[in-house]
Write a structure and sequence with these properties.
Layout (H helix, E strand, L loop, with lengths): L8 E4 L11 H26 L6 H30 L3 E3 H34 L4 H4 L2 H26 L9 E2 L6 H7 L5 H33 L4 H30 L9 H10 L1 H12 L2 H16 L2
Parallel strand pairs: 1-3
Antiparallel strand pairs: 1-2
Helix pairs in contact: 1-2, 1-10, 1-11, 2-3, 2-10, 3-5, 3-7, 7-8, 8-9, 8-10
Length: about 300
């Protein structure tokens, strides 16, 4: 019988291991983190206190902004502290918590983006039925189902990962704990883990992406009948949304579904930035801050804030 050494902690890798330039990565992450917090918190404040923004679209935008603050906070602060202090150790419990929260936030983000695409489809293609379809009860129940089902989804993947034995090494080639990196370290059979990842990716990610694309296809078909000026405005809004969703989906799919081959390159770390940091950073800009109503509400919030100083 083979004896395995029990892993009690993992060591997270950074982008740069030595030299003065290793401080550039945490500073870059920190700037993106602070910008993300500022943008999303402004949107949450504006959509909460401005009565004109109490509509289904802004209800989901507020939920997305709150989720994005949580999502980026799971990985970036810890990565910055680890890089600056050169202490890359994370406990098994801490690693499990990080995996659970990353999967949970990514799953709920997919569902929110899908519902928001559906909201835009109904508003543009079925405007007369919009108040009936996108009523308050639908919005609340959709949010609750997304949040609660995310707990089950994240718990399933996290539990299935940490039932494995880890004996290859305790060095995680990533700036945060994620499932593909841990599967490379396992000395157990990981076939069932990859099968679960593949099935869930096809059902959840593929299903959400299909619904989003179908919503925008119907939107584009309807928008083609609009005057040229309004058509250009609609295209300039929808295309960036599709690009961000596509990058979000494709990078997750590549990192999580590629063959489990140990590698110490920074390729996976760079790709992981595009699904853990870039979406929360860009979502406020693409979904809200380009909107005149939101910009006006944010302006009022800032005026009120500084006038009280």
């Amino acid at each position: 019988m083979t004896n395995y050494t029990m892993v009690t902690e993992f060591l997270l890798m950074g982008f740069v291991k030595r030299g003065e330039i290793r401080f550039l990565q945490p500073m870059f992450f920190l700037l993106m983190y602070l910008a993300t917090l500022l943008g999303n918190l402004l949107i949450v404040t504006a959509t909460t206190f401005d009565q004109n923004l109490h509509t289904p679209m802004y209800f989901f935008l507020r939920n997305l902004s709150i989720l994005d603050v949580c999502y980026i906070s799971v990985t970036v602060p810890n990565a910055c502290i680890n890089s600056l202090t050169d202490n890359r150790a994370i406990s098994v419990a801490g690693c499990a918590a990080q995996i659970f929260l990353v999967i949970y936030c990514a799953y709920v983000e997919f569902l929110f983006l899908t519902v928001m695409a559906r909201d835009r489809y109904v508003a543009i293609c079925q405007p007369l039925r919009y108040p009936v379809i996108m009523n308050h009860q639908f919005c609340v129940w959709t949010t609750l189902v997304s949040l609660l089902s995310g707990l089950i989804y994240a718990g399933l993947h996290t539990g299935n990962t940490f039932r494995l034995s880890f004996c290859q090494s305790n060095v995680v080639h990533q700036f945060f704990c994620d499932i593909p990196s841990l599967l490379m370290l396992s000395c157990s059979d990981t076939f069932n883990n990859f099968l679960l990842l593949f099935i869930s990716a096809v059902v959840v990610c593929g299903g959400c992406f299909f619904l989003i694309i179908m919503s925008y296809i119907h939107i584009f078909s309807t928008v083609r009948k609009f005057p040229t000026r309004e058509r250009g405005k609609a295209f300039s809004t929808c295309v960036p949304h599709i690009l961000v969703v596509s990058v979000f989906l494709l990078t997750i799919a590549y990192v999580y579904l590629k063959p489990s081959v140990a590698s110490e390159t920074t390729q996976d770390m760079i790709l992981s930035v595009f699904y853990t940091i870039v979406p929360p950073f860009l979502n406020p800009i693409l979904y809200s801050l380009r909107n005149k109503q939101v910009k006006e509400a944010v302006r009022k919030v800032l005026i009120n804030f500084f006038s009280q100083k």
